[in-house]
């Protein structure tokens, strides 16, 4: 059984400055809920209720969000605001939270290495704290199913346009059944002209403790960082690894445009906001010059 999730959330978030200077981008709201809460709910939905967050400077708001706030609870109770009180109380019960500080920002591989003691000898999931995935069934649940079949690591893959592969870790592999790939190689941020495919690793991983040995022997790679993709590249030489193609949507909240689009999409789904927001969007669109 897989019980543990690791959430790297120590990055600087330079694509989202200035707001990320003193606030974690993982706390950016999608309507009125921080993105990190959606991520932890996805893990908990898959039965992963032990969550280790790898955090860094300026990330205290994440800890506070998952702690109880008795003053707020008392104030809501005194005002009879039962629904909000219930929603606030529930946050601290979604998962058992643990925190570890990444001392230096040496990349995603280095961030994951901080989970070594906590995960010990168990398989574990890694969910990027700034990435929201919408799929049915929820994505981490799907990865757990694949892991339970093969007992080998599995990552989420997304088809991206060729000209964008240089932003991602990309795999080479063969499709062994619809949407499921056996991975033969992985390359971090390849040049589009020699990328092995347009299948990018997309923010969700199910890994085994063996990965830590490979991280230890991984030299600094792209951007002078210890890349998780490079450690997985070393692991796939010794052990099978699978990729599951995304059947759904991924929103990278660390990217401004994705953040704005996601808020509109989620806002339009909310019964309390839908009609007014839709009317406003129509009004705005009507006044926009055609490009
Ligand atoms: P990103 O590539 O989004 O980097 O990291 P970033 O620093 O967060 O943001 P930008 O690119 O400067 O805007 C992918 C994930 O890995 C985590 C980040 O928090 C994010 O969830 N990460 C990255 C770490 O935890 N530690 C690191 O050293 C680097």
Give the amount of beta strand, in percent. Answer: 15-25%
As for the number of domains, it is: 1
Helix content: 25-40%
CATH architecture: Alpha-Beta Complex
For the record, the CATH class is: Alpha Beta
Low-confidence runs = none
Q: List each distinct ligand once.
A: uridine 5'-triphosphate
Give the overall average pLDDT: 95
Class derived from helix and strand content: alpha/beta
Order of helices and strands: EEEHEHHHEHHEEHEEEEHHEEHH
Q: Please give the radius of gyration in angstroms.
A: 20 Å
CATH names the topology as Spore Coat Polysaccharide Biosynthesis Protein SpsA, Chain A
Task: Write a concise synopsis of the structure shown.
With about 290 residues, the protein is α/β, with parallel strands linked by helices.
Q: What are the key terms here?
A:
single chain; 291 residues; alpha/beta; Spore Coat Polysaccharide Biosynthesis Protein SpsA, Chain A; nine-stranded mixed sheet; 13 strands; 35% helix; 25% strand; binds uridine 5'-triphosphate
What is the strand and helix layout of this fold?
Elements: E1 4-8, E2 29-30, E3 33-34, H1 35-45, E4 50-55, H2 60-66, H3 70-78, H4 82-91, E5 96-101, H5 108-113, H6 116-119, E6 124-127, E7 131-135, H7 139-150, E8 154-159, E9 169-177, E10 180-188, E11 199-207, H8 210-216, H9 228-235, E12 242-245, E13 248-252, H10 256-269, H11 274-286
Parallel strand pairs: 1-4, 1-6, 4-5, 8-12
Antiparallel strand pairs: 2-3, 6-11, 7-13, 8-11, 9-10, 10-12
The site of uridine 5'-triphosphate has 21 residues, from α5.
């Amino acid at each position: 059984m897989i019980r543990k999730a690791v959430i790297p959330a120590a990055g600087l978030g330079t694509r989202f400055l200035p707001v990320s200077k003193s606030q974690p981008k993982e706390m950016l709201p999608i309507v009125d809920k921080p993105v990190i809460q959606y991520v932890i709910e996805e893990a908990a939905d898959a039965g992963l209720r032990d969550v280790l967050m790898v955090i860094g400077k300026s990330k205290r708001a994440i800890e506070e969000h998952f702690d109880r706030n008795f003053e707020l609870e008392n104030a809501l109770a005194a005002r009879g605001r039962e629904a909000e009180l219930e929603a606030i109380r529930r946050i601290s019960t979604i998962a058992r939270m643990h925190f570890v500080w990444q001392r230096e920002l040496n990349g995603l591989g280095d961030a994951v290495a901080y989970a070594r003691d906590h995960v010990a000898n168990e398989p574990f999931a890694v969910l990027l704290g700034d990435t929201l995935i919408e799929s049915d069934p929820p994505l981490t649940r799907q990865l757990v199913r694949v892991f339970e079949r093969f007992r080998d690591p599995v990552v989420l893959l997304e088809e991206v346009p060729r000209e964008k592969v240089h932003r991602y870790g990309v795999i080479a592999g063969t499709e062994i059944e619809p949407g499921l790939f056996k991975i033969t190689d992985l390359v971090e941020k390849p040049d589009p002209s020699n990328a092995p495919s347009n299948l990018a690793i997309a923010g969700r991983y199910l890994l085994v403790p063996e990965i830590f040995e490979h991280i230890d022997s991984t030299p600094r790679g792209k951007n002078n960082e210890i890349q998780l993709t490079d450690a997985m590249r070393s692991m796939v030489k010794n052990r099978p690894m699978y990729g599951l193609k995304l059947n759904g949507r991924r929103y990278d909240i660390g990217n401004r445009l994705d953040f704005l689009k996601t808020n509109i999409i989620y806002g339009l789904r909310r019964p309390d906001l839908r009609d007014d927001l839709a009317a406003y969007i129509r009004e705005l669109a009507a006044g926009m010059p055609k490009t």
